[in-house]
From TrEMBL:
Residues 9-303 form the Fumarate lyase N-terminal domain. Keywords: Lyase. One of its GO terms (cellular component) is cytosol. InterPro entries: Arg_succ_lyase_C (IPR029419), Argininosuccinate_lyase (IPR009049), Fumarase/histidase_N (IPR024083), Fumarate_lyase_CS (IPR020557), Fumarate_lyase_fam (IPR000362), Fumarate_lyase_N (IPR022761), L-Aspartase-like (IPR008948). GO terms for biological process: L-arginine biosynthetic process via ornithine. CDD domains: Argininosuccinate_lyase (cd01359). It comes from Tribolium castaneum (Red flour beetle). Residues 366-433 form the Argininosuccinate lyase C-terminal domain. The lineage of its organism: Eukaryota, Metazoa, Ecdysozoa, Arthropoda, Hexapoda. This is Argininosuccinate lyase-like Protein.
Amino acid sequence: MEHKKLWGGRFSASTDSNLEKLNSSITFDKRMYAEDIEGSKAYAEALKKINLLTEHETTQICKGLDRVKIEWDQNLFETKEGDEDIHTANERRLKEIIGEPATKLHVGRSRNDQVVTDMKLWLRSHLQDLDKIVKSLIKVIITRSAHEIDIMMPGYTHLQRAQPVRWSHYLLSHAWNLKKDCDRLDDIVKLINIMPLGSGALAGNPFNIDRMSLASSLDFDSVTQNSMQAVGDRDFIAEFLFWASMVGIHLSRLAEDLILYSSKEFEFVTIDDTYSTGSSLMPQKRNPDSLELIRGIGGSLFGQCCSFMMVLKSLPSTYNKDLQYDKEAMFTTFDKLKSILEVATGTVKTLKVNQDKCKNALSFEMLATDVAYYLVRKEVPFRDAHFLAGKVVAEAERKGVSICDLTLEELKNISSSFDVDIGRVWNYEHSIEQYKAIGGTAKSSVAKQIELLEKWLM
C-alpha cells in the first residue's frame, strides 16, 4: 500500500503501475546491498555519538543489518512489492527483523546522499578488481615479450609496411597503453574518496553529525564541502565511464591488430582453439570471435559514456531522477569491461606467434630509411638524404628489383656518397639494433622496457 512507501505520507492516490516499474531501480542497485549495509552501520554509529540512538538500539540495528547481509549473501533475501531500491528494501527488512529501532536509522539522511555514498563504496572496491585484471594482461605481455624478444616483424604505419621492429616491441606498445590506464585510476579514486554522506537531501545534516569521523570509518579521505553539489555529483561515474571507454579502445586496437595478424594474408599469429570459433557452413574456418567481441564491446563502452554524459548535460542543480540511470551505466560498463579484459588476457596468453612468417614478411624496401641514415652518416643533410633514398626506391621500382639488388654503380649515379659499405645496410637486425635510444626497438631498449614495467608491477 502507498502509505508504506518512505515518502508516501503526503500522497492520497496510488502510483501508476507503469510509473512504478519505471521508478524502481532494485533490479540494478541490489548489487550494492553490502555497501548500503556498510554505510548504514557506520551512520548508526554516528547517530549514537550524538545521542540519537542508544547503545542498545545501535547494537540492534547493526546486528539486524548483519543478518540482512547474510540473507543477501546466501541469496535468501526476498524483495517485495514496494521495494523501490536497495535502500528501501534493506530498511524494510531491518524493521521486520528488529522492529521500531529500524525507523530511527534514516534520521537526517536522504536516499540522495545515501545512494551516491553506496555507489562510491561499490565502485571503489570494484575498480581494484579491474586494476588487477589490467595488470594481469600487462604481465602476460611482459612475459611473452621477454621470451620472444628475438622475433622480428614488420612495423606498420597506415597499415603499410614501414620499418623492421621486434615483435616484443610491438607487444609492449599495448602494455604501455594499459599502464596509462592503470595510472588514470589514481585520479578517479581521488574523486571517489570524498564522502557525500551527511549531505541530506540537499541542505545538509541538521544534527551535527561528525562527518569526518564518519568518513574515516568508511575509509574516505575527506568529505564534500557543499551539500547541494554532493547529492547531484556524478562526475566520478562519468570519469569511470570515460576511463572504461579508453581501456575498451586500447583493447579494441590490440584486437584489431591480432585479427589482421591471424588472417591467412598475414599468419603472424594463430589464435588458440580455446579463443576461436568455427563456421556452421565452412569447416576450414577458424574465426577470431574472442577478438571481434572485444572490438565490438569496446565500442559499446563508449556508447554508455556518451549516453550518460547526455543525461548529465541539461540537469538542474542537486538530485534529479534522471540520475537513476547512473547505476545501470556503472554496472553495465563494469561487467562488459571485466569480461573483455579477461578474454583479452586469455587470448594473448595462449596465442602462438609464427616466427618464420613474421621474418619472411620483412622486405628490403623497409630499409629505405636506413639508406637515408647511411647518407646522413656520410654528412649528407637529412632532407637531401631522404630525397636521394626516394630516388633509390624509384630506381629499384623502375628496374623491377629490390633496392638491395641495385649495383654500386647505379647507386653512385644517384649520389656519389654511396660506397661499398652500403652492403651493411641490408641487414634487418642491424637496422633494428640502431634504435638504442630510450623507447626504441633495439634489444637493449626493449629489455629496459620490460625491466621498468616489471618494477612498476611490484
